[in-house]
Design brief:
162 residues, 7 strands, alpha+beta
């Protein structure tokens, strides 16, 4: 549905996720974790081989019923989670940790699960998932877009319905 809105090139992206209610989940090797209701951001990259493009990676995140491979798959497979927006920039540079660390430093950001999405991180990130309990959606999208600007023109797609 949204596949054509994402470039078939490498890049880094941030999912803005709404969790409609408190949820407890088994997250792979991280164990059972509690996620409060609210907005979350998840930073990822699509920098691998030719088939690992922004289009393919984001489309995978937006698809339900997939095999759980990454930490984020467990959260996105719940009935109470919804990706509301995707911010991204096309790049071959490894800026994922820089983006994630900048989001961690935003006012109101909280780390709910240390190590979430950052088990292979070498940039000192606490987590690639941040929680924003008191932040309005459009304000959050604007603040994340400003983080992307030094790395290239940020783009975003709002996801109306899955």
């Amino acid at each position: 549905m949204y596949k054509s809105r994402f470039p078939n090139n490498p890049g880094v992206y941030t999912l803005v996720i709404e969790l409609a209610e408190v949820t407890t989940l088994q997250i792979g090797m991280l164990g059972v974790q509690r996620f409060p209701e609210g907005h979350y951001t998840y930073v990822g990259s699509a920098l691998g081989e030719r088939s690992t493009t922004l289009r393919n990676r984001v489309q995978r995140h937006l698809t339900r019923g997939k095999r759980k491979h990454w930490h984020i798959d467990y959260l996105l497979e719940t009935d109470v989670s919804r990706v509301k927006a995707v911010l991204f920039t096309e790049t071959s540079d490894t800026i994922e940790c820089s983006i994630s660390t900048a989001i961690e430093r935003l006012e109101g950001a909280e780390i709910v699960v240390k190590g979430f999405g950052s088990s292979d991180c070498h940039g000192g990130c606490q987590s690639h998932l941040c929680f924003f309990p008191q932040t309005e959606f459009h304000d959050l999208v604007g603040r994340i877009a400003s983080i992307y600007r030094p790395f290239g023109t940020p783009r975003h797609v709002e996801i109306k319905k899955l």
